[in-house]
């Protein structure tokens, strides 16, 4: 993806839904980006992880 287009999509604000997990921690779903979700021990961690997942979604990177 061209850099100006990528920067545009990364600058958008995406709504997230955050759910507490029974075992502790949280899961965040990003409905506008199908398949994008993150997990974290704290609310701050799940939001930071979610931001990273959005970047990875737009750049085509993977965790593995």
Q: Explain this structure to me?
A:
With 64 residues, the chain is of the alpha+beta class. It has a single domain, classed as Double Stranded RNA Binding Domain. It is built from 2 helices and 3 strands, in the order H-E-E-E-H. It has helices spanning 3-11, 43-59, and strands at 17-20, 26-29, 37-40. The chain has a 3-stranded antiparallel beta sheet, covered by helices on one side. It starts with a helix and ends in a 5-residue tail after the last helix.
Question: Which key phrases capture this entry?
Answer:
single chain, 64 residues, alpha+beta, Double Stranded RNA Binding Domain, three-stranded antiparallel sheet, 2 helices, 3 strands, elongated, HicB-like antitoxin of toxin-antitoxin system domain-containing protein, TTHA1013/TTHA0281-like, HicB-like
What number is the mean pLDDT? 83
Rg, rounded, reads: 12 Å
Helix content range? 40-55%
The biggest sheet, with number of strands, parallel, antiparallel or mixed sense and barrel status, is: 3 strands, antiparallel
Q: Give the SSE string.
A: HEEEH
Q: Distance between termini?
A: 21 Å
Q: Count the beta strands.
A: 3
The SS-based structural class is alpha+beta
If strands are numbered along the chain, what order do they take across the biggest sheet? 1-2-3
Global geometry: elongated
**What's the level 1 CATH class?**
Alpha Beta
Give the count of helical stretches.
2
CATH architecture tag: 2-Layer Sandwich
β-strand percent reads: 15-25%
Helix and strand topology:
Blueprint: H1 3-11, E1 17-20, E2 26-29, E3 37-40, H2 43-59
Antiparallel strand pairs: 1-2, 2-3
């Amino acid at each position: 993806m061209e850099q100006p287009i990528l920067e545009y999509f990364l600058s958008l604000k995406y709504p997230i839904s955050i759910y507490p997990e029974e075992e502790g921690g949280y899961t965040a779903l990003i409905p506008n980006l199908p398949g994008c979700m993150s997990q974290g021990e704290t609310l701050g961690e799940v939001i930071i992880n979610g931001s990273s997942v959005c970047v990875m979604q737009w750049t085509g990177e993977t965790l593995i």
